[in-house]
Amino acid sequence: MPNALGEFEQLILLALVRLGDDAYGVSIQAEIARRTRRDVGPGAVYKTLLRLEEKGFVSSWLGEPTRRRGGRRKKHYRLEPAGALELRRSLAALRGMTRGLTPTLELQ
Amino acid sequence: MPNALGEFEQLILLALVRLGDDAYGVSIQAEIARRTRRDVGPGAVYKTLLRLEEKGFVSSWLGEPTRRRGGRRKKHYRLEPAGALELRRSLAALRGMTRGLTPTLELQ
DNA sequence: CTATATTCCCGGCAATGTCGAGAAAATGAG
DNA sequence: CTCATTTTCTCGACATTGCCGGGAATATAG
Q1: Burial, A103: exposed, middle or buried (Cβ in 10 Å; 0-12, 13-18, 19+)?
Q2: What is the pLDDT of residues B27-52, one digit of tens each?
Q3: So what's the pLDDT on residue A70?
Q4: Is the terminal CB of chain B with fewer CB neighbours within 10 Å at N or C?
Q5: Cβ pair B5, B13 in contact under 8 A
Q6: Do A7 and B11 touch (CB under 8 A)?
Q7: Distance CA A76, CA A15 (A)
Q8: What is the pLDDT of residue A3?
Q9: B9 touches strand C (CB under 7 A)
């Protein structure tokens, strides 16, 4: 009975929307940290991406090596239609609960 | 290291804001079910309220018996300042992640 | 080849989410 | 008063999600 998306899962999926083709572990972690002022460990990000992928909400592919100093190849992530649907549902639910509240609370 | 509010916890706290003095187990459950179209069991609601109370985000008091047919006395819940703060933080984070996205995704 | 930088994987525990069975009041009927 | 019925709440148990820390993999520079 997997009913709804968790909060961190929401953030991850939103990061995918924002980052488009540039979405990979590190950039996702940075985007969330920057925009939510919450420090996120890499492990949390990868683990969550893995679970989202198992559910078919997200897909991934390996990028080519870049010219930067070091590093393993990037694993890029993309939001799948099923994931987009879940995300919309989840946000709609929150919107329903915040609609009409004071500006500080309402998700405007 | 309790970092953030879970998703269901958010919904509960928002229900408290909406319902004011009328907030008790059953009305909270109904409000969430109605506004999010997600069916929620009573157990989930009470359990979450209990945990929120332990963290000091919520307080409760027993109501007087009413004139309705049957029923145990209602346990009313109120959002405490600490809870309001957490809720605002949590929603601000989401707002930061959705800002500027398409209307379907943005929490407007 | 070695050093270093960048990225990713994963085990394991903590916190949250959910369900189901059932106990506790409260009132009305007989 | 006693019993049946209604409404509300409690609690145990387990599934899912969240998170950290340690470390492995892979790339380039020197």
Answers
A1: exposed
A2: 999 999 999 988 899 999 999 999 99
A3: 66
A4: N
A5: yes
A6: no
A7: 12
A8: 60
A9: yes
Distance of alpha carbon B4 from alpha carbon B17, whole angstroms: 19
pLDDT for the residue numbered A14: 95
Chain B residues within 8 A of A5 when measuring between CB atoms: 7
Instruction: Decide: A87 and A10 in contact? Cβ < 8 Å.
Output: yes
Tell me how far CA of residue A89 lies from CA of A42, A95, A100, A105, B60, in angstroms: 27, 10, 19, 19, 31
Please tell me if residue B85 touches chain A, with a CB cutoff of 8 Å. Answer: no
Q: Which of B54, B52, B56 is nearest to B25 (CA)?
A: B52
Average pLDDT, stretch B19-33? Answer: 95
Give the closest of A5, A38, A88 to B105, CB-based. A88
Q: In the structure, how far is the CA atom of residue B98 from the C1' atom of nucleotide D3, in angstroms?
A: 58
Q: Which residues of B touch A36 (CB under 8 A)?
A: 92-94, 96-97
Task: Record the pTM.
Answer: 0.89
Question: Splitting chain A (108 residues) into consecutive groups of 10 residues, what average pLDDT does each group show?
Answer: 77 95 92 91 94 94 75 89 93 91 70
